[in-house]
Amino acid sequence: MTDHDAEDHVEDLPLDALPLDAWHRAKGARMVPFAGYEMPIQYTGPFGGIVAEHNWTRESAGLFDVSHMGQLLLSGPGLDAAVEAVLPIDLATLKLGQQRYSLLLDEDGGVLDDLMVSRWPDALYLVVNGATKWDDIGTLREALPDDITLNHMDDYALLALQGPKAAEALTRHVRGVEALTFMKFGRFTLAGHDVTIARAGYTGEDGFEISLPAHAAAEIADLLCAEPEVKPIGLGARDSLRLEAGLPLYGHDMSPETSPIEAGLIFGINKRRRRPVEEGGGGFPGAERIIREINQGTARKWVGLKLDGRLPAREGAEVFAGAEKIGIVTSGGFSPTLGAPIAMAYVASQHAPHGTALDVEVRGKRLAATVTPTPFVPHNYFRGS
C-alpha cells in the first residue's frame, strides 16, 4: 500500500500514538511525525539504520507497523453496486478470500487515494492510506447510499511481516497460512487472537499483512520478533524498499493532479470498467476522462530512471532532454540493493520509451539518466508452486 514520505511529512496538529508506541520506543526507535502519528523511521543500536533494515528485509523478514492505515468495513444492501459507483472495480470478479488494488477518484479522474479492497462474507474490507483516511471516509460516506454502513475499525492494528523468510517465521504460529498466495487472505488464530492475514505488502517481497485487535499488538509483535528471522523495521526502509519495487507513493507519485493512466495504474481500472458506458463500462467518477486517455494516450507518463554516479535525485528534481525541461522527479533515492541512485518521474510521453537518455538536475548539476523499466528490483511475490 502507499503513503507520504516519512522524512518529508510535517504535521502541525497534535499527533496520535500508535498502539505500539511504547513498544517502538523500548526497541530504540527514532520517532517522527507521519500521517498524524508518531511513527518509527528507524531503530538504533548495532543492527539499526535504514540500510541495515532494508537489507535485512530483502534477505530475511522485517516487521513493519502500519497501524496508521485506515481499516474500513462496508456492508449493507446493494453493496457491490454502491461501491462500483464510487470505485472503478469489477466486484463480480472479486471472490471471497481475494483482495484487489483500486483507486478513489474525483469527478475529473484525479487520484484521491489508492487502496486495497477485500471480499469478506457479506462485507467489503478496505485499507486506505493513513494520511488520507479521514478525507477518504468523508468522501465514501458522502458518495455511498445511507443504507450502506461504513465501520472505521479504529480499535484494530495492522502489522506487515515482509521478506523471503516471512512465511517460515509466521507458519510456526499460524497453521495453514502458508497456503495463501499473493493477494489472498483468510481468518486465522494467532496467539489466541482472531486475526485476518493477507499475503500482500508494500516492499516487493513475499510477506503478509496482519489485521489484529489493537490490544494484542504488543504481544504479537513480541512473538514474531522473537523468531530469529524477524527484526522490527522502520518507515525509512519501507520507503527505499517500495522505491526499488517501483511502487507508487500517494501524495508524491500520484495526487488529484494526476490520472491513473498517466501514472501507469491502468490495472487499478478493471477491464469491464474501461469500456464506454454504452458497452457496460464506465459509471465511476472521472470515467469519461479515464476512458478517453486509455484510447488516446496522455501527454506525460510516469517512468523509472537510473542515474549515473552515486548522487540521488529527490522529489522535485527537474528532468531534461537536452536544453528542454520535459519532466519532474516524484520519488528518488539511493538503492541499497543496486548500489546506485534510482528515481521515478513524470516525463513528456515522447521521451518515455525505455532506454531514452535524459538528464536530471541535482544541486545545480546535470546528471545523466536512462528511462528504465520498473520494478528496479524484481518482485518476489508468492503466487504458488
TrEMBL record:
Protein name stated in the entry: aminomethyltransferase
Lineage: Bacteria, Pseudomonadati, Pseudomonadota, Alphaproteobacteria, Sphingomonadales
Keywords, comma-separated and alphabetical: Aminotransferase, Methyltransferase, Transferase
Gene3D superfamilies documented for this protein: Aminomethyltransferase beta-barrel domains, Aminomethyltransferase fragment, Probable tRNA modification gtpase trme, domain 1
Binding site for substrate: E209
PANTHER family: AMINOMETHYLTRANSFERASE (PTHR43757), AMINOMETHYLTRANSFERASE, MITOCHONDRIAL (PTHR43757:SF2)
Record-listed E.C. numbers: 2.1.2.10
This protein's GO CC annotations: glycine cleavage complex
UniProt family annotation: Belongs to the GcvT family.
EC class name: transferase
InterPro entries documented for this protein: GcvT (IPR006223), GcvT/YgfZ/DmdA (IPR028896), GcvT/YgfZ_C (IPR029043), GcvT_C (IPR013977), GCVT_N (IPR006222), TrmE/GcvT-like (IPR027266)
Gene Ontology molecular function terms on file: aminomethyltransferase activity; methyltransferase activity; transaminase activity
Residue span, Aminomethyltransferase C-terminal domain: 300-377
GO terms of biological process kind: glycine catabolic process; methylation
Reaction(s) this enzyme catalyzes, per UniProt: N(6)-[(R)-S(8)-aminomethyldihydrolipoyl]-L-lysyl-[protein] + (6S)-5,6,7,8-tetrahydrofolate = N(6)-[(R)-dihydrolipoyl]-L-lysyl-[protein] + (6R)-5,10-methylene-5,6,7,8-tetrahydrofolate + NH4(+)
One Pfam family from the record: GCV_T_C
Superkingdom in the source lineage: Bacteria
Keyword Transferase: yes
Domain GCVT N-terminal span(s) in chain numbering: 21-271
